[in-house]
Design brief:
2 helices; alpha/beta; four-stranded mixed β-sheet; about 40% strand
């Protein structure tokens, strides 16, 4: 198998509100694709984030979509400054620093920075 990219789909109740939120939080200019009515896609590095207007009721296990960033503490501070409710900055010695947060529809997200292995 030769995987070349991945697309993560997120259900949102109000597409316009979600697009504005993701643009603000991820510092994006705008959607890269609008492949169908009620669907937009942003390219985030090697991953495509697809927002689709559909029911957001949860069933089954919850998924957390995690993104690697250069400086997780700085990104957390930036999101706090934007008024985004974020969890505490967690530290796993020798492995990773991370924090969790959610979009307006409750989709769980996380930003992390891998720590240098000694």
């Amino acid at each position: 198998m030769d995987l070349r990219s991945a697309t993560v789909g997120m259900p949102v109740s109000d597409l316009r509100r979600a697009v504005e939120w993701y643009q603000r939080v991820f510092a994006l200019a705008g959607p890269d694709l609008e492949p169908a009515d009620g669907v937009v896609e942003f390219q985030l590095g090697p991953i495509w984030l697809q927002l689709g207007e559909e029911p957001t009721a949860r069933s089954g296990a919850e998924v957390v979509t995690r993104f690697d960033v250069a400086d997780v503490a700085a990104e957390r501070d930036r999101l706090v400054g934007l008024g985004v409710e974020v969890g505490p900055l967690e530290h796993v010695p020798g492995a990773v620093d991370y924090f969790d947060f959610a979009d307006p529809d409750g989709n769980r997200l996380s930003l992390y920075t891998l720590l240098a292995q000694g």
